[in-house]
Amino acid sequence: MLDNSRNEPEIVGIGACVMDTLITIPEYPKEDTKLRAHSSEAVGGGPTATGLIAASKLGIRAGFIGVLAEDNGGQFLVDDFVRYAVNVDHIEKKTGYRSFTSTIWLAGDKATRTCVFDKGNLPPLTLDERKKAAVANAKVLMIDGNEMDAAEEACLVARQSGTKVLYDCGGLYDGVERLLRLTDVMIPSEEFALGHTGCETAEEAAVKLYERYQPQVVVITCGKSGGILYDGSKQELWHYPAFPVDAVDTNGSGDVFHGAYAAGIVKGFDYRKCCIFASAVSAIKCTGVGARKSVPDYETVCSFLESRGIQVEERVNTK
Predict the structure, then answer these.
(1) pTM score, two decimals?
(2) Architecture per CATH, 5-16+47-98+124-306
(3) pLDDT in tens, 71-88
(4) Residue 296 and residue 113: Cα distance in Å, rounded?
């Protein structure tokens, strides 16, 4: 009997999958005016979806679990996963529905992004036995607060099977507590952490999130300031750095950070080293246009870190 375990995704993800139209402009336009764009390009987006592609480009087997529309947007998104070697075996395609799409303005003068989106009208994801098995066989399950019911069910499967749940906490959606209580690696943005806890500082929010939900670790991302890791078992707060680069496009940098962090877990890094590794990947990504195509490969990240005196060593993660 053939052993297919080596081909199974090491990281699976459930969440938003979006066709983005990136429009590069010289500066943010005034209302009710016209402005000539430098360029326009269709790309794939979505927190978990982009995170999975980042992990794949870093050498990890990744797979998306979701529902996409049988329209141009849906086909584009499937093709984009295939382009970056992300497993699409657990994607359902539905006819008669509209894809999740967005338009993003990238202003060159201040390296800012402005996003307008249409969530489409796809039905919610449901998990069959094959999808549950994919979660159980993975080392990491990535979620982002979208597809709430299916994500919660997948978290319960992960908890039973020893799969780590990494939650990209970006949106303050209704009912996020359902997922937070099942999370192992909680990575909220500073905005989410402060908004959800009511704390005044990220440090206070990290401690409060840990005490309330008891994950293995809380990592708060603070943009150009780096971020904060709180290991509640040791009651240690630790600040990890951001790496200064000449940023061209910051769109998707948080999504890439989460995917790189998941890749670090699979590679056997401890949680602190995952922070350093993911911060480096995210920084390098910002030096090119496009959240996905600008993600570096593993060797490039290692060289980037080694040039800054940081050695990268892997250990096998056997789950």
Answers:
(1) 0.91
(2) 3-Layer(aba) Sandwich (3.40)
(3) 999 999 999 999 999 999
(4) 21
